[in-house]
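ping. complex inputs:
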Amino acid sequence: MRAETNKQATANEESLLRIFTVPEAPDSTLGRIEQEISQNLNGFLSEHLVAKEHKLSEIEKDFSDAQLPEEPQFVSDHTSFLLDKLVAQSVHTSSPSFIGHMTSALPYFMLPMSKIMIALNQNLVKIETSKAFTPLERQVLGMMHNLVYGGASSFYQEYMHSEQFSLGAFCSGGTIANVTALWVARNNLFKPSGNFKGVAQSGLYKALLHYGYKGAAVLVSERGHYSLAKSADLLGIGREDVIAIPTDANNRVDIDKLRSTAKQLRDNGIAILAMVGVAGTTETGNIDPLAEMAAVASEVGCHFHVDAAWGGSTLFSHKYASLLAGIELADSVTIDAHKQMYVPMGAGIVLFKDPSLAGHIEHHAEYVLRKGSKDLGSHTLEGSRPGMAMLVFASMNILGRKGYQLLIDRSIEQARYFAELINQQDDFELVSHPELCLLTYRYVPAPLKAILRSGNQVLISQVNEYLDDLTKYVQKRQREAGKSFVSRTRINPSIYQGQSITVFRVVLANPLTTQQILQDVLQEQRELAQTSQIALPMLMKMLAQWQAA
Amino acid sequence: MRAETNKQATANEESLLRIFTVPEAPDSTLGRIEQEISQNLNGFLSEHLVAKEHKLSEIEKDFSDAQLPEEPQFVSDHTSFLLDKLVAQSVHTSSPSFIGHMTSALPYFMLPMSKIMIALNQNLVKIETSKAFTPLERQVLGMMHNLVYGGASSFYQEYMHSEQFSLGAFCSGGTIANVTALWVARNNLFKPSGNFKGVAQSGLYKALLHYGYKGAAVLVSERGHYSLAKSADLLGIGREDVIAIPTDANNRVDIDKLRSTAKQLRDNGIAILAMVGVAGTTETGNIDPLAEMAAVASEVGCHFHVDAAWGGSTLFSHKYASLLAGIELADSVTIDAHKQMYVPMGAGIVLFKDPSLAGHIEHHAEYVLRKGSKDLGSHTLEGSRPGMAMLVFASMNILGRKGYQLLIDRSIEQARYFAELINQQDDFELVSHPELCLLTYRYVPAPLKAILRSGNQVLISQVNEYLDDLTKYVQKRQREAGKSFVSRTRINPSIYQGQSITVFRVVLANPLTTQQILQDVLQEQRELAQTSQIALPMLMKMLAQWQAA
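pong. complex structure:
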């Protein structure tokens, strides 16, 4: 009996060891799926992803058991479950008609490349678990630094592989990149001085006491990304000390107000930790006047960070790079490779103009990151990290700068086409013009357009409120129908005197999106709007009476 | 001429679009590599990874150009480059003789699963870009919460899918998980009260003024992970306010000193932000007395966090889970699925006992994370995130709890075997006994052992310094030879009165590591030690004279 049990245990152990050694057979369920994905990704996704949206509450039923499964399960059985319940109900982010967010299609070589990366399972925190991946990541940071700052080749020779310096840091995403930039700025501002050991060692309370400030502020336009408030919370600055500077009609920061606000804060005993330029804004895709901001930051003597998480890849285009003129004056820049660099999710990058800046967040430990080592982990917020740099590297080499330019140019021109198309419609309103490949608009029944231009603020405000509901209604129905997807947001365009309105938001990053698809999107929205139960005829009648009165 | 240029531009664009639609041919270079990996990962890695270490300065030469490539490159050419220069020089983390760090082999099904995940390219920040992945991630958090806290099924029914609550958060790794836990603890400690809007809104300076403290401290044993000091820096607490509490001979926090230090800090006007229990320590693999720590934290009334980034998976084993007794009393717990849950890099998890705790870091935005939505991003430090939860889910289902138990038990028992083996050698010294699957030891030439036990502190100290150099020498040569790999660290074991010594550090998480491999590792180290130029005979002679005198 005892021998039997032992025999069983050994058999279990042997079968367990096999899952670390024996590959999936090509004719197994998982093997077949993998081949299907390799041979025809779009086909696989179109076939397996259910277009029509299931209710979230329905989907949740399939993921409702918090019990740990006690027994092992056959890989093929579990794969079937995932295919039916997870894959089928996931979002077709690479569909050409999914134009609502910044997640787009991937070049096909990304899949096998990713597989190599995952098979190698390197940990970039230290050389001992990443070897050649460390110089590779440093080179990618050098290339991106070069893209933004265009340093001399002697500069990169000196700093790129030096253990004492850092041209930037890979991060899981733009949020960590922004946090890292502001962390560096904070630690530099409140550096050691005299008896004070610096904010890194002694904390923010003692820092403010030592330097004689009542607080520290981050200045960014009201269009700044929500990760900046999150950073300020995290860093102990406080969300209310992220000061939202008003924008002009083009969603760009008002430079005069930026300057006067900085002065006023200073006069009130508040240190200016950083100014943050946005290139482009998440909601409207506009770019702050970076060169002018840099000048103000320089006057004030504060850190200038540019959040180019989304727009940074525009620098690959010789045609449109000038839209970001002044970015080379920033002390730090955030760029997400998983946005318009077409790399899978998880590839944020922060760059530092001055390679010694990251020294303000340097840290060491006994078993890794020893002083003098070239371990990347001594200058990153994160610890263990995967080798995503390989995917950015491969993409930059395979596409080349010219390849990226083609993609960037195409997306911007596609957005301009769509803006024009919207302008041609009687019953749509373009709300923000595309500067990059992002624009916002809404459906406005033709008769209401006249009222919106009537100058009667009470009426306009009432119509806008009605349209908010209509936009929300259409966006939800469109998403649920699953044929196409746009997102929605709320902005306060100057033509409506700062009144917040709900708009459709479109990002045209997918190179497979055609003009026909864009035409179809408008037609679908028009039809959906007409199914709205929101009482349009009644509203029209009421408004007519009001006008007559 | 003009027509020609346009024609060329169109051709370029078409070939570019193809990389988003046409898959890699099976007989292409990349296609072949992918198949090779699928069919025989270990074979692929053994064949392509060069065992003998190249000098880092040599490798850097292949990654030295910061210039962006202007022209596109054939996928096959670039793949060949990556194979020769990157893959060949990367670290064979899944080799059974790579026993120096926590990165281990992956079950084979992880590769195709990862490929599906990357092909879907979901963004977990919001439901609109992740749909079923959101309930899936919530379920995985529920399962992990259940593993740690074992709540009733009604508890999970109520909280798992509720938009107002959060059982935890997925993170890129243990560092972000620890930061998140301490962020939550800080914001809870300095919550809104009276006129004070809370630290999240108003920052740490005003928080301390309002609550009448001079600082805030995090208490953790001197074996705590370096990410805790990094967290304190980030959160504005300051690194020097991470108070290192001494440990006993088994590297466990001294409970009396923990209690008295907390009292003393309080008396000095310092708030206790959190106590952090370690399960297990990165350098020695030991586990703090968690239940006793919880009791002290409860007396003090502070947040109790357990950093079980590495040891947490022990909970899957009914045989060894009791080593972590008391973890269920923690307010928050960090577990890394990319460590002993055998998931690829990038899967950290933080869990909250009280599902309302994450409310202290809740945030919203207009275009995502709208109030009332179930978007996961409203309670995470990171923004855009990949669907790593799928891999944790698949692994828990395919291995089952019993499968994990087999892996955990085997690794602990392997470590015990290795400890015994070391003890049997005349010329090795076991420095820290394995509590989990991690141990430290060093090579000590037999004659020196007697001196180490002589009681002569001057001599012992001198021998230890010599051994530090020897250990470092052996560890480096072994790594360079590429046959096997152990890491090294510095610890201060009580038998040497707190003197820091350098030791080999071994983590036995790879189920494919055999007893033979462990025997070979010792033999290799013995032989390497004998090649040392560090003048052993002279030292021996000198010590003999000293003893005689």
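The radius of gyration of chain B is 27 Å.
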